[in-house]
Amino acid sequence: MNTWIKTLLTTGMLFLAAAVISSDPSLAQVKQLDPAAKVDQTNPAPDLHATVENQRLGRAYRQQPPLIPHRIEKYEIDLRVNQCLRCHDWPYSSQERATKISETHYMDREGKKLDKVSRTRWFCTQCHVPQTDARPLVRNQFTPDAPTN
Ligand code: HEC
Ligand code: HEC
Known about the structure:
The structure is a single chain. By secondary structure, this protein is mainly alpha-helical. It has a domain at 53-133: Flavocytochrome C3, Chain A (Flavocytochrome C3, Chain A, domain 2), CATH 1.10.1130. 3% of the residues are buried. The protein is elongated. Helices cover 20% and strands 0% of the residues. The structure holds heme C (HEC) (2 copies). One heme C is lined by residues 63, 65-66, 82, 84-85, 88, 99, 101-102, 104-105, 117, 121-124, 126-128.
């Protein structure tokens, strides 16, 4: 190809790239519309939806991990700490009148019984979740299988 045309094409590509980058809003600096307004960064934004609390939430199918009928954002779960245990683990569950974690959670993957909640069940919110009063985005027509015998 002619070197002159090559140079022209390369320059054109560079201009195009520059135009795309500078027009991408995600790359632009976020500026406050009213610089004088004080933004309170200490108060969290209000919840859009209320958590469904203090009512029994049924199970949609027999094996379903029960839904959490209370808020959970204050209860930390990380590698060492699990604050759900202080109410749901034996023997605190009786004092707190919280459902005791079921025996299946005190077994390792080979079925060996353990004194403590198994590490395979450590991150409770993998399976248990609270509900909000948000309207479902799509209608759900799920019905569980009827028992076969
Ligand atoms: C301060 C105590 C407390 C803490 C901490 C707590 N819960 Fe609860 N939880 C309760 C009580 C009390 C109930 C029973 C509520 C009822 O029956 O109305 C309950 C109910 C539940 C249920 C429903 C059980 C069932 O059989 O229907 C689940 C699941 C649950 N909690 C999970 C969690 C998880 C996961 C965490 C941590 C993110 C957590 N809870 C932290 C007190 C607590
Ligand atoms: C891998 C999924 C999974 C994880 C992780 C898990 N659970 Fe469960 N959980 C279940 C299932 C499924 C059930 C219902 C069947 C059963 O009881 O084993 C259940 C039942 C329960 C119940 C009801 C017990 C009853 O007798 O009605 C409580 C309370 C509970 N889990 C709390 C917890 C807490 C607290 C954690 C975290 C320490 C946790 N679970 C972690 C799946 C899970």
